[in-house]
Amino acid sequence: MSPNLEKIAKYNKKISDINEKTISMLKGLLKLSRQPDHRLHSVKFLEVWESLYPLVENKLKYAGIELQGNFREHMDKRYLALVEYLAQVFLNLIINSIHSIEENCKKNERRYIQIDVYPGKSVTLFEISDSGPGVPEELIDKIFVSYFTTKQEGTGTGLGLSICRTVMERMDGEIQTKKINNKNFFEVRVLSDDA
Ligand SMILES: Nc1ncnc2c1ncn2[C@@H]1O[C@H](COP(=O)(O)OP(=O)(O)O)[C@@H](O)[C@H]1O
Ligand SMILES: [Mg+2]
Hints:
With 195 residues, the chain is α+β, with helices and mostly antiparallel strands. It contains 4 helices and 7 strands; from the N terminus they run αβαββαββαββ. α1 packs parallel to α4 (160-170), α2 (45-62) packs parallel to α3 and α3 (83-104) runs antiparallel to α4.
């Protein structure tokens, strides 16, 4: 194998390792969420970001993916949520974007994940999109269904988005996607805590 191919193979394995880790963490969270005590707390977005960013920081750098959008301006905003749940939702969305970009975008194209925040008094909207091609129109209705995946065995389990939806509903929030001009926007609605 050429050194480059070897590098790519190693890198791909790393991504699937992380994905597996995420899934097992999510499974644990789901178990947790069935227990009665999952009351929501006042959570600053900074806490959420700090618990997930280190898990993807190197991967983003290595893949040359830039994070853009206005989310850094709203780090101090508070939500009624659980840090672990919200972190898992954003982690899964970011990892899905990394997978899509790695699979579909050439190295010389600009690669980005965009996270925009639209703060609201009772509900705040997060909008996550990426420089990949998005979800094919005919699959859009399927991606939140458990075990639906377009990825090879070992890379995807198809549980990420369905668990994201369960977890968001448990926080009285919402997750959905819409396609505009060949781009998928994942919309995450979280209860604002303005008190
Ligand atoms: N950002 C994205 N761009 C393109 N397709 C996506 C994106 N996010 C999710 N998908 C599609 O949705 C499917 C389901 O995602 P998910 O539930 O996280 O499972 P998995 O990542 O294990 O496949 C993916 O296999 C992929 O086809
Ligand atoms: Mg996934």
